[in-house]
Amino acid sequence: MRIVSRSVLVTGGNRGIGLAVARAFAEAGDRVALTYRTGPPEAATGLGCLAVRCDVTDAGQVDRAYKEVEAAHGPVEVLVANAGITRDQLLLRMAEKDFSDVLDTNVMGAFRVAKRAAEEMVEARRGRIVLISSVVGLLGAAGQTNYAASKAGLIGFARSVARELGSRGVTCNVVAPGFVETDMTRALNDKQRAAMLGKVPLGRGARAEEVAAAVRFLASEDAAYITGAVLPVDGGLGMGH
Question: Which residues are annotated as catalytic?
């Protein structure tokens, strides 16, 4: 049984997958901080997590958030870069800003928080970085050229970070969820849900807690020799990619 409490930061941890990840680490006894952009998340208080306002597209806010987390919990030892947005539209109708905004949040945001975390991790010669990608980054999806590009970009980013920091005891891995039962997906109509789930060999969506379990594994000592990996939690949707 692990008895050491670590400083964990989850970006975009106020709902959905991020909140499930924050809960999983908190229940394991870690000191958990989560970031949000709007509206302080009541769920964070119930979990005993530190909620920090931070827009990952703003480097100044990222630095201030880290200082607040470090003051409360110490240097971040586990980073889960989960913050992300969508701006879905067909390519021929997509505005350039919708494309750039998604990449700025999903890729540049991960870059900003990972770079800041890596500074302390390299000095400590230990650390875990887990990036939340998507099966869409492997398969592609009509109407999501921006989102797919951003999620595919996270894989190349993670593998490069893994090569740079591996000798310092820092691992960097990716979790790639498929169709996850969240507030967003529950808003789909029956026809849309059936079309999506019909492609999933297991025939159902993932629970956010199942994604969180994969994240916790990659951040654990059991995964100390795993880095640069992409762990799919997609019910078989992305097999072969």
Answer: 147
Q: What is the pTM of this model?
A: 0.94
Partners of 170 in beta bridges: 127
Closest among 232, 234, 230 to 200, alpha carbons compared: 234
d(C-alpha 158, C-alpha 166), whole Å:
11
Residue with tokens 């302080």: 40
Q: How far apart are CA 211 and CA 224, in angstroms?
A: 19
pLDDT at 4: 78
Please give the domain boundaries of the chain with CATH numbers for all domains.
7-233 (3.40.50.720)
The Cβ of residue 209 has, within 10 Å, a number of other Cβ atoms equal to 13
Among 159, 149, 176, 171, which Cα is nearest to 232's?
Answer: 176
Tens of pLDDT, residue by residue over 44-98, are 778 899 999 999 999 999 999 999 999 999 999 999 999 999 999 999 999 999 9
Helix, strand or coil, per DSSP, at residue 77: coil
The CA–CA distances, whole Å, from 233 to 51, 72, 167, 199, 207 equal: 27, 32, 28, 14, 10
CB atoms within 10 A of CB 132: 27
Q: Report phi then psi at 233, rounded to 5.
A: -125, 75
Q: Alpha-carbon distance 190 to 170, whole Å?
A: 43
